[in-house]
Amino acid sequence: MGLFDFLFGKRKQEVLEAIERGARIIDVRTPQEFKYGYIDGSVNIPLERLNDSAIKKLKKLNAPLVVCCASGMRSASAKGMLIQNGIAEVYNAGGWHKLDRWLNS
Description:
Elements lengths: L2 H18 L3 E4 L3 H5 L7 E2 L7 H9 L4 E5 L3 H12 L5 E6 H8 L2
């Protein structure tokens, strides 16, 4: 097992465990991207709309969050924003296609 397999395997395990514990999936792609494919049950909050109001609503969920996007760049930004705003348990799944494969394998 290589270093990347170890690192990404660990992320996969953390994300799947969080989902088992009731994590909500937040997809930070644009609405146009989201309408062409998404994970059932995910909530679309585009990164540019991840403002104070949206973050307050996410805090009220009182659940871990899993963020995803197309490639992992926007979800990494979203994770940082959420953590900076007091949401302690946030996981970056990266691209939504990968997360979909993880959930259906």
